[in-house]
Specification:
The complex is a heterodimer of chains A (about 300) and B (about 270). Chain A is of the alpha+beta class. Chain A contains 7 helices and 12 strands. In chain A, strands 1, 2, 4, 5, 6, 7, 8, 9, 10 and 11 form a 10-stranded antiparallel sheet that branches. A two-stranded parallel sheet of chain A has the order 3-12. In chain B, strands 4-3-2-1-9-8-7-6-5 form a 9-stranded antiparallel sheet, with no helix packed on it. The chains are: A alpha+beta (about 300), B alpha+beta (about 270).
């Protein structure tokens, strides 16, 4: 996959020895390859990865799986995780090409796996990729939900009053308070949105509003507006798999609500830690795109 | 590469947290703030959690400075006069380095890494004029910064700096508890960050020791020892209070510097 911002720019950090560091990590991974193979074998006994198959399987598993608990009694989701990297190419089904690895749709509702755009919005999506710099190229925050499947590592930490999600990608983070408090004022737009969490049984439910809407779902310009209201559901369905669902309501852009669902798989590499991805500091791809006539994506505001 | 160094490389690459060199922490005297007894977390550590921010002019200049026009900026964005945060006010530059600091100062409008929205290093990120939030876990302290959504994971599990040639804009942080104080040893810096907008700088040999000590319900003392034998003639110290943000609804929002750089008619190329 050729994704300048998602791979190359991390390697060209000016003054950083990233190539060296990643080379060391690659060498290091040879040592732990047997463990990775073991975990892959275990994963195959779990739910399959393809969203259309994973989602019903995970719903069924969640009914019987008893998750490990934190000291304060919440399902323990702490650790390192990865979402399906194909989503950042295109959340809908897409073929393997020179640029993409290809993948199935992450969308489980509607059943056809397509984003239910209004006609004007479907037309705009087709223009986006030609007109604008893909917002991840300049290392902008990936937003929600893209951060959950951007092809780098995710770390979840839980405290009694909040859940933190740290993303290696451009060192972004989400702070999800799980105490009751209202969202920030409606006129505050945030690249990562404003998250409020609550526990429903063994599921962490996160309400996300206040989107800047300057992010895309993927590299092909799939988008939402500042009107978007997302509800995410995180449920452990086995000790190494989180069933992640996000329902997206945005009457400015879509004809109906729609839902993505996919697995977050645990990274069990011993001693693994997030590294600083100084993405912007090494990024050299945006200026050539702007010189070639592309513009910075301005976002789509809610239609009042 | 010898067999033993190859093993070392593999080990370090796999377990980045592990190192074969001792953690470098210079001697520290007890803080005068040690009299306050802070509340404890559920797992028994002094509780430093919350949203904190400085109230000073160190972001402009860590030393004493007059109010002045900042070259290239409208008058309303001038530098406010300020009392410095450097102990004794002197930064003990070597002669060549003092000349370099002056060059930095003269070209600060564009030469400051902050002008390009780069991660500002440690301790500078602490006294940027934006809040940050501290979270504690049994094996680490996590500090999340509003500025550039920067993240620090400070491991307090006894692990050491990785012994590999890697550089981080925010360095590699390892912490430990000394009484009521969180002591953080930070190394493996790039040589590309500055201490302030006045051109104070360091090299890749920078070694920072931070000390965070609660001095009251809403106050914390932040003390830093700065060593860099390539640039300074001796270690030097800064200190300042951190203030707990009092707003009932306070939360970190965002300051996406490099996104703003691309916005509007003034958009600048990098």
């Amino acid at each position: 996959m050729r994704t300048p911002s998602d791979s190359d720019s991390a390697l060209v950090g000016k003054g950083l020895h990233w190539r060296r560091a990643l080379w060391l990590l690659t060498l290091g991974s040879l040592l732990i390859a047997p463990f990775l193979l073991t975990s892959a074998a275990q994963t195959q006994t779990g739910c399959p990865g393809e969203s259309a198959l994973f989602h019903p399987c995970a719903v069924a598993r969640a009914k019987t799986f008893r998750p490990p608990r934190t000291v304060d009694g919440r399902p323990n989701m702490q650790g390192f995780w990865r979402g399906p990297a194909s989503g950042t190419e295109n959340v809908e089904e897409h073929p393997m090409t020179d640029d993409d690895n290809g993948g199935k749709s992450l969308i489980v509702d509607p059943a056809d796996g397509k984003i239910p755009y209004q006609p004007w919005a479907a037309a705009l999506q087709k223009e986006n990729r030609a007109k604008y710099v893909e917002p991840n190229v300049p290392c902008f925050p990936s937003g929600v939900p893209r951060s959950m499947y951007v092809p780098t590592q995710i770390e979840i930490l839980q405290s009694p009053v909040s859940v933190l999600i740290l993303f290696e990608r451009a060192h972004t983070y989400r702070i999800i308070p799980t105490s009751v408090r209202p969202h920030v004022g409606a006129n505050i737009g945030l690249w990562m949105g404003d998250s409020r969490g609550r526990w429903e049984g063994s599921t962490l439910v996160v309400d996300v509003t206040n989107h800047s809407a300057k992010t895309w779902f993927d590299q092909v310009g799939n988008f939402h507006s500042t009107d978007a209201h997302m509800v995410e559901r995180f449920t452990l369905v086995d000790s190494d798999t989180i069933h992640y669902q996000v329902n997206i309501v945005d009457p400015t852009v879509y004809t109906r609500p729609w839902t993505m669902a996919f697995p977050l798989r645990r990274n069990k590499e011993k001693g693994f830690r997030l590294l600083e991805e100084a993405c912007h500091e090494g990024e050299r791809n945006t200026d050539p795109l702007i010189r070639a006539g592309q513009r910075i994506y301005p976002g789509v505001a809610e239609k009042k | 590469m010898s067999a033993s160094s190859l093993v070392g490389v593999l080990f370090a690459g796999t377990l980045l947290a592990t190192s074969v060199s001792p953690t470098r922490v210079t001697g520290q005297t007890a803080s005068p703030a040690g009299v306050y007894s802070p509340p404890r977390t559920a797992f028994g550590q002094p509780d430093l959690q919350g949203v904190w921010q400085v109230v000073n002019t160190a972001a402009w200049d860590v030393q004493d400075h007059s109010g002045q026009r900042f070259p290239g900026l409208p008058a309303r964005f001038s530098v406010p006069a300020g009392q410095g945060v450097v102990e004794g006010n002197e930064i003990p530059y070597q002669p060549w380095a003092l000349a370099r600091k002056q060059e930095n100062h003269n070209s600060r409008l564009t030469a400051d890494p902050e002008a390009r929205c780069y991660l500002p290093g440690v301790p500078r990120i602490t006294y940027m004029p934006y809040p940050f939030q501290i979270f504690q876990f049994p094996d680490r302290v996590v500090i999340l910064y509003e500025y550039l959504h920067a993240t620090r994971e400070i491991y307090t599990d006894g692990s050491r700096h990785p012994d590999i040639p890697v550089e981080f804009w925010l360095g590699d942080s390892r912490g430990r508890w000394e009484g009521n104080t969180l002591v953080v040893d930070v190394t493996l810096f790039t040589g590309e960050t500055w201490f302030d907008r006045a051109g104070n700088f360091h090299s890749t040999d920078l070694h920072v020791v931070e000390r965070y000590t609660r001095t009251g319900r809403d106050h914390m003392l932040y003390e830093v020892t700065i060593e860099d034998p390539k640039v300074f003639t001796r270690p030097w110290k800064i200190r300042m209070p951190l203030y707990r943000r009092q707003e009932q609804n306070v939360q970190l929002l965002e300051f996406e510097c490099y996104a703003y750089a691309r916005e509007g008619p003034d958009a600048d190329a990098k």
